[in-house]
Write a structure and sequence with these properties.
- This protein has about 500 residues and is α+β, with helices and mostly antiparallel strands.
- About 25% of the residues lie in helices and about 20% in strands.
- The protein has a domain of about 200 residues: Dipeptide-binding Protein, Domain 3 (Dipeptide-binding Protein, domain 3).
- α8 crosses α10.
Length: about 500
C-alpha cells in the first residue's frame, strides 16, 4: 500500500544506509458531491489555473504538467510529503553504501502500469537512463550524477553515483524520478502511462483533464472514482464556479481579496498553506542594463516587498530573499540585506551612470503577475527608473520569448519547482543568465559533504547569490485552498509541484 512513514532529508543522508476534457461536473454525487447515504465513492472537480500545453514534462518546461500528473498518474521510488520529508513510494526501502555513492532500492511487488505492464527494476533503469537520452527539459541535469543503474533482480535496483550527492534522493522525488514503462512512452504528450492511482481518461487543451481511478491500483485507492482538473484564467469565474457547485475545490487561489466571502460560510473550508513557489523579479544578467550588479542592487533596494504583499496579495505570503524557502534544511534568512532604501537605490544608479534608466518589464498574463507589476512600476518610478510593462501571454509566448530565447530585460514569474535555487542560479544558460563561476565550486563541495558541510555550503551559495543581486524574490507565494466542507484530502501545502490527490474522499 502507499507508504506514509516520513523520512527527513537529513535522516536519509545520514542513516538510511546504516540517506491540467470532457469531465463530470462537481457535485455529481448529490448535495456537496457526497452522494446518497451509504453510496460508493463519487467524483470531484478541482479548479486550477495555468493549464498545461501538453502532458509531457520530459520535453516541456513549467509546473502545470507535473502538478496534474505526478503522484496521480506517475509515481517515483520516493515522494515528498506535506512537511517536506522524503517518504517511500514505489521503493519500500533503500540502503546507502558506506561511501555514499550507491543507493540500493527494494521495490514494491504487485505494481502495474495503467497499460497492464508489470513494474520491475528494469523500468527504473529504463526511466533513469531515459532522462539522459530523451529528456530535453533542463531538469535532466539533476540525473547527471548517476553513473549507472544496475538491475539486481526484478524487485531490487542499485543506482551508482559518480560521487556522493546530498541532493539526489530529493531530486528523484520530483519529475525526473517518474517511472515510465518502455511500452508507454510513444505519446507522452497525449497519453501518459504510469503506476499511479489515476489514469488520464481525456484531456482538452486549456480546458480540463479528466482522471479516472484505477481499479487495479497496487496501493490504497483514493476515495473518489475520478477527478476532473478544470482550468480557469479568471479568479472571479473560479470562485463563482465553486459557489454554484460547478467545482468542488479551488487550489492555489490567485485572488486573495475573494477569500473573505468564503471564510464565514460553513459550506466551505478555507486554508492558507505554504508553498515552494517564489514570485520572482528576474533580471537578464547578460543584457543591459542588468549586466551591472549596481543596477540589480538598486532595483532591489527600491522595492518595499512587504508593501507589495499587503497591496497586491492582501497580506498573504511571506518574505524570502532567494529561491530557498523555510521548509528547506539549509534556509538562511537574508531578507534584511536589501531592506527598503530608496536613497541607496538612487545612489547606486548614479554610481552606475543610470540615473535616467528606462527598462521593459515583460509580465506574463497571470493574476499574480498583473497584481504585482503595477506596484513594482510605481516603486521603481520613485527612484527614477521608468518601467514599461509589456504583457506576455502565458505560458506559450512567455516560455518561448523569455524562458527559451532570453529576449527580455526584467520579468516576473511564479517559480514553483521545489528546491530550485541551483536550477535557477547554477546554470549560466538558464534564462536569467547568471554567471555561476563563484558558486559552482561551493555547490560541488557541498553536495559531496556531510550534512553539516552540505548546509554550510548551501548557505554560502545563498549569500553569494544575494550579494550579486542575481535576481529578486518579491514574496513566497501562499497556497490558498478553498473546498466544499465535506471534501477531504486536498493538500494544504504545495511543497513540490505535484498536486497529490491520492487521499481525496467525501465525508
Amino acid at each position: 500500500m502507499r507508504r506514509k512513514t516520513p523520512l527527513s532529508i537529513a535522516a536519509a543522508i545520514l542513516t538510511v544506509g546504516a540517506l491540467a476534457l470532457t469531465g463530470c461536473s462537481a457535485g455529481s454525487g448529490g448535495a456537496g458531491g457526497s452522494g446518497d447515504s451509504g453510496s460508493s465513492a463519487t467524483t470531484a472537480t478541482i479548479a486550477l489555473t495555468g493549464a498545461p500545453v501538453n502532458l509531457d514534462f520530459t520535453t516541456t518546461a513549467g509546473a502545470a504538467i507535473p502538478q496534474a500528473l505526478m503522484s496521480n498518474v506517475y509515481e517515483g521510488l520516493v515522494e515528498v510529503n506535506q512537511e517536506g520529508e522524503i517518504v517511500p513510494l514505489l521503493a519500500s526501502e533503500w540502503a546507502l553504501s558506506d561511501d555514499r555513492k550507491t543507493y540500493t532500492f527494494t521495490l514494491e511487488e504487485g505494481v502495474t502500469f495503467s497499460n497492464g505492464e508489470a513494474f520491475t527494476a528494469n523500468d527504473v533503469k529504463f526511466s533513469f537512463d531515459r532522462v539522459k537520452t530523451d529528456w530535453t527539459s533542463s531538469l535532466k541535469a539533476k540525473m547527471d550524477v548517476v553513473e549507472s543503474v544496475e538491475v539486481v533482480s526484478d524487485t531490487e535496483v542499485a543506482v551508482h553515483l559518480s560521487q556522493p550527492s546530498n541532493a539526489w534522493l530529493f531530486d528523484i522525488a520530483t519529475p525526473i524520478g517518474a517511472i515510465f514503462s518502455p511500452e508507454g512512452v510513444a505519446d507522452l504528450a497525449n497519453a501518459p502511462v504510469g503506476t499511479g492511482p489515476y489514469e488520464v481518461a481525456s484531456w482538452k487543451q486549456n480546458e480540463n483533464i479528466e482522471l479516472t481511478t484505477r481499479d487495479d491500483y497496487w496501493g490504497e485507492k483514493p476515495g473518489v472514482e475520478g477527478v476532473t482538473l478544470q482550468y480557469f484564467a479568471d479568479a472571479t469565474a473560479t470562485t463563482n464556479a465553486l459557489r454554484t457547485g460547478d467545482v468542488d475545490a479551488i487550489v492555489n487561489l490567485q485572488a486573495p481579496e475573494l477569500v473573505s466571502t468564503f471564510e464565514s460560510d460553513d459550506a466551505f473550508t478555507v486554508a492558507s498553506g505554504t508553498s515552494s513557489g517564489e514570485i520572482s523579479l528576474s533580471f537578464n544578467n547578460r543584457a543591459e542594463p542588468f549586466n551591472d550588479v549596481r543596477v540589480r542592487q538598486a532595483v532591489l533596494y527600491a522595492l518595499d516587498r512587504q508593501a507589495i504583499i499587503d497591496t497586491a496579495w492582501n497580506g498573504y505570503g511571506s518574505l524570502t530573499a532567494t529561491f530557498v524557502t523555510p521548509k528547506e534544511p539549509y534556509y538562511v534568512d537574508l531578507n534584511e540585506q536589501y531592506a527598503f532604501d530608496p536613497e541607496k537605490a538612487k545612489a547606486l544608479l548614479k554610481e552606475a551612470g543610470k540615473e535616467n534608466l528606462s527598462i521593459t518589464y515583460k509580465v506574463p498574463t497571470r493574476p499574480y503577475a498583473q497584481a504585482v507589476s503595477e506596484i513594482v512600476v510605481s516603486q521603481l518610478k520613485d527612484v527614477g527608473i521608468d518601467v514599461k510593462i509589456e504583457s506576455s501571454e502565458f505560458p506559450a509566448v512567455w516560455l518561448e520569448d523569455v524562458f527559451t530565447n532570453h529576449n527580455y530585460e526584467m520579468t516576473t514569474v511564479l517559480a514553483v519547482e521545489a528546491r530550485d535555487v541551483l536550477t535557477v542560479f547554477n546554470n549560466p544558460d538558464y534564462y536569467i543568465g547568471y554567471d555561476n563561476a563563484k558558486i559552482a565550486p561551493i555547490v560541488a563541495a557541498a553536495d559531496q559533504a556531510d550534512e553539516a558541510g552540505y548546509i554550510e555550503g548551501m548557505q554560502q551559495v545563498q549569500q553569494q547569490i544575494v550579494d550579486d543581486a542575481a535576481s529578486g524574490v518579491l514574496f513566497l507565494f501562499p497556497n490558498i485552498v478553498i473546498t466544499k466542507s465535506d471534501l477531504q484530502g486536498v493538500p494544504e501545502n504545495a511543497i513540490v509541484e505535484a498536486l497529490n490527490l491520492t487521499e481525496l474522499s467525501w465525508k
